[in-house]
Amino acid sequence: MRTSPDRPPADVRSLYCYKWKGADAIGLAQQLNEQFIELFCELCFDAQCGNPFPLVATHRDLWGRLDPISRKRLALFPFVIVDLRFGDAAWWRMAARNGAQARISADGATPVTRWEWLALETLMFAWQVAREDRGVALMIFGMPPLVAECIATLTMQQVRTFAVECAKRLRIRWDDDPKFWRELLIAAREPEETTLQSLRREAELHFCGELIHAQCAGGAPLSLIAENRMDAAQEE
């Protein structure tokens, strides 16, 4: 069949209609990223709060200069930059086993600090994604299948309890590379997008390395198709 020069063939058009099943999760991941960035910005003005994030003190002046637009720009990764040991299969296996044996109060634990609430929101999001699709959990949180399995089997009460108990294990990705975060924080405030885009791609490469490590820990091959689908979803 002939096709119009400005109309692609039917088999190509069908690709345009494809939507990666984790596409909606990317938007939620970016919202969570923004909340975590806002937390860092708030903590940089409160030196007495005893926050557990060394990166806040390291770049206190830079966090304090981020305006709402800069925070949104900084949050636009296609994955969660909040980490709760999601790549540590051994730790989650032990946590799930201990949680199953422990007796939890009827009311569960109640978050007190802002980062405890954020830990709860992070783990709740991870729990929902892990229950729905292990592949999406891998691409959004960098968690191997074994971790996704452990988290998916938690009860709602256990999710609440673990979130509060593990809140001080909450971290931002690449917090062991303050130089990289300094470049990100500076680029987020610059009107020119090129530098931030370059750093974002570098961050995505770091995350892909974490994915490979997570998959090795989980004993399954990394799906290049899934990577391509995540890229396509981000472009949408």
Word description of this protein:
This protein has 236 residues and is an all-alpha fold. The protein has one domain (22-235). It has helices spanning 10-16, 23-43, 54-58, 60-64, 68-74, 89-101, 114-132, 134-141, 145-152, 156-165, 178-189, 194-218, 224-235, and strands spanning 82-83, 171-172. It has a two-stranded antiparallel ribbon with strand order 1-2. Helix 7 (114-132) runs antiparallel to helix 8 (134-141). The longest helix has 25 residues, at 194-218. The radius of gyration is 19 Å and the shape is globular. Mean pLDDT is 81; it is low at 11-17, 102-106 and 219-236.
List keywords for this structure.
single chain; 236 residues; mainly alpha; two-stranded antiparallel ribbon; 13 helices; 2 strands; 64% helix
Q: What pattern of helices and strands is seen along the backbone?
A: HHHHHEHHHHHEHHH
Mean pLDDT figure: 81
Low-confidence stretches: 11-17, 102-106, 219-236
- Domains counted in the coordinates: how many? 1
What is the CA-atom radius of gyration, in angstroms? 19 Å
| Number of strand elements | 2
Shape: globular
Widest β-sheet, arrangement of strands: 1-2
Number of helices: 13
Structural class: mainly alpha
The helix fraction, in percent, is: 55-70%
Biggest β-sheet, characterized? 2 strands, antiparallel
Classify the beta-strand content into a percent band.
under 5%
Distance between the termini: 29 Å
Task: Provide a compact summary of the structure.
The chain is mostly helical.
SSE layout and pairings?
Elements (H helix, E strand, L loop, with lengths): L9 H7 L6 H21 L10 H5 L1 H5 L3 H7 L7 E2 L5 H13 L12 H19 L1 H8 L3 H8 L3 H10 L5 E2 L5 H12 L4 H25 L5 H12 L1
Antiparallel strand pairs: 1-2
Helix pairs in contact: 2-7, 5-11, 6-9, 7-8, 7-9, 7-10, 11-12
